[in-house]
Specification:
Elements: H1 2-16, H2 22-48, E1 53-56, H3 60-69, E2 77-80, E3 88-89, E4 96-99, H4 102-106, E5 110-113, H5 119-125, H6 127-131, E6 135-139, E7 143-146
Parallel strand pairs: 1-2, 1-5, 2-4, 5-6
Antiparallel strand pairs: 3-4, 6-7
Length: 147
């Protein structure tokens, strides 16, 4: 009974947000493709200008974005607060995950915030990176630069 009620609730939420309509899904895909184009262009331009780019956040959503955006080859390393992930490699692109202290040892020019939900906290906790000339960027609907 509980599973049935839960399924009904999810189906109702899908209808409420239009997720049962193909045009909604196509619109979401079109939006993702637009963000992908912007992020790819930005990372490519940064690399052409000799910039070192690191990613912040090695959770599944961030590494999924790296794969979807096809920019793993543009990222020099990843950092994450979770000690369990340190000195391991991301799925797919096999990018090494390091402690956040490596931001200050390796000094990337830019940090792509893959854990965008925590962007404000990450920037607040690592304001020193910006003070030392680093640039944070992340994407929601558009790429956002912080320096």
């Amino acid at each position: 009974m509980k599973d049935s009620a839960s399924k009904e609730l999810w189906l109702e939420l899908e209808k409420q947000y239009g997720l049962d309509k193909p045009e909604t899904i196509r619109g979401m895909y079109k939006g993702l493709e637009s963000v992908k184009t912007k992020v790819c262009r930005l990372t490519s331009d940064l690399r052409k200008n000799g910039k070192i780019i690191a990613g912040f956040g090695a959770a599944r959503s961030g590494t999924t974005l790296l794969s979807f955006f096809e920019i793993g080859n543009e990222i020099d390393f990843l950092v994450d607060d979770n000690r369990i992930k340190h000195y391991k490699f991301s799925p797919g692109d096999k990018i090494e995950v390091l402690p956040t202290s490596e931001i200050y040892n390796r000094r990337p020019d830019c940090l792509l915030i893959l854990a965008w939900i925590h962007a404000e906290k990450i920037i607040e906790n690592h304001h020193r990176f910006v003070e030392e000339g680093g640039i944070f960027f992340h994407n929601t609907k558009t790429s956002v630069l912080y320096n």
